[in-house]
Amino acid sequence: MPLSPAFARVPRFLGAAAGAALLLLAAAPSAGATIEPSETVTIDPTGLVAPDGTLTLSGTYRCLGGNGPVFVSSSLQQGDSYVRKGVGGTSAVCDGADHSWTNTDKAAPGRFRPGPARVEATVTELSGSGLPLPRFHAVRHQDITLVEG
């Protein structure tokens, strides 16, 4: 069946992007998501922001199992903006022991300044056959203070 003229003008990549967005939203942790209480992620109360825009966030994590690759990801938000900046990602080892994580990334100089900020840290496993789906081991939101470093 031929596409209507309105749909014929829509680039094909938009459909793929919309599908990917729906997949991520469906996989995001919900209020009812089950995370083992023995699996944790912490965020240090202080993060670093360098004059050149380099950001450093850190903390600890503990997770169990893990059949696929596991990562500790973090994002940073500051001020009234709802926009978050992803700050690196660290490979994780899910052996039940406590481990440290440190994520570093670079933002535009001046985008983040010393002062209050909000961080989200997530321990995520990519699992499944075929298209890897995220499995969340631990999630934490925390207010921190950025200091010049």
UniProtKB/TrEMBL annotation:
Superkingdom, taxonomy of origin: Bacteria
Signal peptide stretch: 1-33
Keyword list, A-Z: Signal
Record-annotated DUF6299 domain positions: 37-148
InterPro entries per the UniProt record, alphabetical: DUF6299
Protein name: DUF6299 family protein
Organism per entry: Streptomyces gottesmaniae
